């Protein structure tokens, strides 16, 4: 029986890619992907990002990486709070 909920698939993506899921879980996972375009797209994107990230070696990372990323994160956090101090939502984000 395939996974019935997309959240079950999303929770297992790493296990599947790492080869840690057993045969029944792999069959359910891929059965769900065969039926669900959104999960199939997510799986492909996740797999491709992991494959691309896998080719980054420590010597490829610039010496100031931590400093630059810290500045980016601080700037992002500042821009995600409106003028009265409330968090803002990303464009297109809907409240559930």
Question: What are the key terms here?
Answer:
single chain; 96 residues; mainly alpha
Description:
With 96 residues, the protein is mostly helical. The protein has a domain at 6-53. It is built from four helices and no strands. The longest helix has 17 residues, at 37-53. The chain starts with 5 loop residues before the first helix and ends in a 17-residue tail after the last helix. The mean pLDDT is 81.
Structural class call reads mainly alpha
What proportion of the residues form beta strands (DSSP E)? Answer: under 5%
Helices and strands, in order, run as HHHH
- List the quaternary state of the chains: single chain
In the predicted model, the low-confidence regions spanning at least 5 consecutive residues are none
Q: What is the average per-residue confidence, as pLDDT, rounded to a whole number?
A: 81
Instruction: Please give the largest β-sheet.
Output: none
**Shape call:** elongated
How many beta-strand segments? 0
Number of helices: 4
User: What does the radius of gyration come to?
Assistant: 19 Å
**Fraction of helical residues:** 55-70%
Distance, first to last CA: 29 Å
Topology readout:
Blueprint: H1 6-17, H2 23-35, H3 37-53, H4 65-79
Helix pairs in contact: 1-2, 1-3, 2-3
A few lines on this structure:
With 96 residues, the protein is an all-alpha fold. The chain has 4 helices and no strands.
